[in-house]
Specification:
Length: about 170
């Protein structure tokens, strides 16, 4: 009987409890939170759209307008690479010319390494006349012949006088 009495008490409590009064405020609060999150998401999405439209409007049109100049830029880069190659070749020729001049003038290396190792190498290596006759920097008359190097006007155009005063 105690079980029947307890069951009736629980049934009475459930009948007297109005679940809609207790759950509806909870549901309303959850709905409000979801709506505010949805509004925040919509605002964020609108900001992203506006930013991407701004980027598309400004930067993409600038890139497209630069495409005409892009061919010129590629040509200038190719010309610069060619110029660097010519300068490198000229530098190698000048270094070779300096080596020949040092050998013709019997200039020695005055560093510690040169002072110690050069005499030893000279004694140890056999002297061969064909190895020691490099191309000379001197003409038949005995005048110095400089190595021909690039002319900057060929690559950059004639020099302009940038110091003109405007009145």
């Amino acid at each position: 009987m105690a079980d029947k009495s307890a069951a009736q008490d629980y049934a009475q409590i459930l009948k007297s409890a109005d679940l809609s009064k207790e759950i509806n405020p909870l549901i309303d609060h959850i709905d409000d939170m979801l709506m505010s999150r949805l509004e925040e998401f919509e605002t964020l999405l609108a900001n992203v759209r506006a930013e991407s439209n701004g980027i598309m409007g400004n930067h993409v049109s600038n890139i497209i307008s630069f495409s005409d100049d892009f061919a010129e830029l590629r040509t200038r880069i190719d010309n610069l690479e060619e110029f660097v190659g010519v300068v490198n070749a000229n530098l190698n020729e000048v270094e070779r010319s300096v080596d020949v001049a040092e050998q013709e003038l019997s200039v020695t290396d005055y560093s510690l390494r040169g002072l110690l190792l050069k005499p030893l190498k000279a004694k140890l290596s056999p002297t061969d006349a064909s190895d020691q006759t490099p191309k000379s920097n001197l003409s038949a008359e005995g005048d110095f012949q400089p190595v021909p190097i690039f002319k900057s006007d060929n690559y950059f155009g004639p020099a302009k006088d940038n110091f003109e005063t405007s009145s």
